[in-house]
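Predict the structure of ATPase AAA-type core domain-containing protein.
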Amino acid sequence: MLTRLEVDGFKNLIGLRADFGAFTCIAGENGTGKSNVFDAIQFLSLLADRSLLDAAQEVRGVRGERLGDPRDLFWNGYASKSHRIRFAAEMVVPLETEDDFGRIAIPTISFLRYELALGYVPPAGIEKIGRLTLLEENLRHISLREAPQRLKFPHSTAKFRNTVLKGRRSGTAFISTSIEDGQPIIRIHQDGGSRGQPKPAAASRAPATVVSTVTSNDDPTILAARREMQSWRRLALEPSALRTSDRYVDPRSMDSTGRHLPGALYRIAHRDPDSDPERVYSRVANRLADLDGLKVRSLRVDQDDVRELLSVQLREASGLTLPARSLSEGTLRFLALCVLLEDPSVTGLICMEEPENGIHPGNLEAMVSLVEDLAVDPMEEPGEDNPFRQVIINTHSPAIVQLVRPDDLLFADSTIKQMPDSRMAHALRLRPLAGSWRGRLGETVPVTKADILPYLTTPPGANLRLEIA
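Done. Here is the predicted structure for ATPase AAA-type core domain-containing protein.
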């Protein structure tokens, strides 16, 4: 669970600090840079799994394409001679995970702060593209005594905080950086504290972060941080993927595009040999029926043993059976989220852009309710019926803003900031609503209902008019 994100120098995120709860809605007009928050989260997740260059090329570039120049990541990458990005992420990590060899790893403590600084080295010789360089990497614990002040969103102490925060640590960081002979040296410190010597490595030529290289339970807390960051996903549901049937040999987990939806639903329905699959199908069908205009009688996964295919079939109240490929884009996206809601194995952070896309205005309330229900209830103990899952959405829809609880809202706008070289830059600003838990922290000037009233009010010229001859 990502509880706090700090970013400086990444695209238009300059001095950004944001605290997150179980569910967060980032709302604002197009062009403010809301998606850059998701890019930063996705970049950290990729860095936990891939090389610096591969992660940089996977993140959305300044012109929206993949495989961009690494300078796209920096706020003024093509004009500046000094490149530096800083990240900090405070997170609650899993209490138990598996290493790459299937062995159990239990972290020393489950509340951590990860810090990372990256620079840029221009191309040299026959190279045509520059590379990122690792300047600093740290992983430290957050004392459980600090938890009441650091875990800032409303939650139950007994049922939630005392359940997800465990362990203790004193003194030494798990990863630290020092400067020796003018060069950054990164060290891994064992979970046992003073036992053994820290393992040093020069950072300047490192092709990847230290976190991404830890694969065994020898360093269980670093591994837990890696697994947590790997679980941060950006959901970009695509109708073409959602309409695809699954072969029997295909994976049984839905990916970020929605592919393998039939296989995932089939696995969820049959995960317990003693349970009735029809109960799962019925719950999904009942939630899907929240959409106005869709008269759902039942839903199931059809098994075609001849072609060895799994496909989702929906039966309407009229008796008509529809395959998934016949459903509208909005219905398919809603169905995918209904399936995720039933899957306790999907944990971690889900980022979703504009969930209102393809949804009729009359069904926005059902969509908001669904994405809110995907997130863990911090007033209850996480478990099979309350998966430890976090959700962040962004939107430019005034209707969504009016449906979301004030405590869950961050309002995005643009502000001017002066950089160290005296240049002025347009930067994203995230402001909480006055009176919300974030608004009471005092770190950012909150907005009031009066501040966002122009955004919530439809402009007079925006109404559609029918000309009658």
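The first helix runs from residue 34 to 47.
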